[in-house]
Amino acid sequence: SKELGRNKFRFYNSEMSERTRQEMRLEERLHHALAKGALNLHYQPKINLASGCLEGLEALLRWHDDELGQVSPAEVIPLAERLGLIETLGTQVLEMVCAQLQKWQHLARVPVAVNLSVLQLQSEHFLRVLDHCLSRYQIAPELIELEITESFFIPERAEAMLAMLEAIRSRGIRLSIDDFGTGYSSLAYLRKLPINALKLDRSFVQNLPGSQGEVEISLAVLGMARGLGLEVIAEGVETAAQAEFLAKHHCQQAQGFYFSRPLPADAVPRWLEINAP
Ligand code: C2E
Ligand code: CA
Ligand code: CA
Ligand code: CA
């Protein structure tokens, strides 16, 4: 009836404004966190599957807010992108990683991977920010790896993006494609990219080795990567069976709860001392 329709409309409306209120609160708290430098990073070990040694770390954003509690990066990053705060956030992440690498310098040196938003790569300031961070903390470029997703393969921007990736690689910084297999990157294009590694997405890894479809996809990615001279890093490895399957098929690196959860910075030196090659 008409009455019902109106109620439905009113309900929808109040739900919308509730969502807006929440988002505004989140926005206000995020501004506050960025101003205070209250964001934090955890580091997840990357393990060489042949040797079992720690070969790298991935920096993952953590935000604990006094009012909101723990807020997931899966929520924070898209919000920061919508609000135009992603460059500020991304710069703080790079700064934190470089400052941390400087503190770990006397320990075994393994590269730390930083996740990038495609918006950061499109910014004309990005290279300057990157160079500034490296020189301020005197970090060898080889100790930084940048993870980008396939969402940057926008055909109209191909030239500019390729130039950006080449500028990054020419500095000696490593590049990998995150969540590989979930986007729409064309294979012909992949061949032209100056990248070092593909990260096999967790959605494939989690169904190994039992599921025929995921087995075939994983083997295809591994075979193609080998042909192109790229390494493969499997993400989200949770079981011994997954690790064994990947090792048997010459996947170079893996990360996941089976090896270690992302760790607070002060838990990393133990890994560097015991585990690094
Ligand atoms: P991602 O780059 O694909 O990172 C892997 C995510 O999987 C992380 O979630 C990690 O904690 C989780 N993970 C690792 N091993 C396992 C496992 O064995 N099983 C399961 N179920 N999960 C595992 P997290 O930390 O919540 O990050 C979510 C996403 O947020 C990241 O996905 C990345 O896209 C984004 N992100 C995180 N930090 C940053 C950052 O500093 N900058 C940008 N731009 N994005 C970030
Ligand atoms: Ca990543
Ligand atoms: Ca990933
Ligand atoms: Ca993922």
From TrEMBL:
Annotated signal peptide: none
Domain of life: Bacteria
Span of domain EAL: 23-276
Protein name (database record): diguanylate cyclase
Organism annotation: Gallaecimonas pentaromativorans
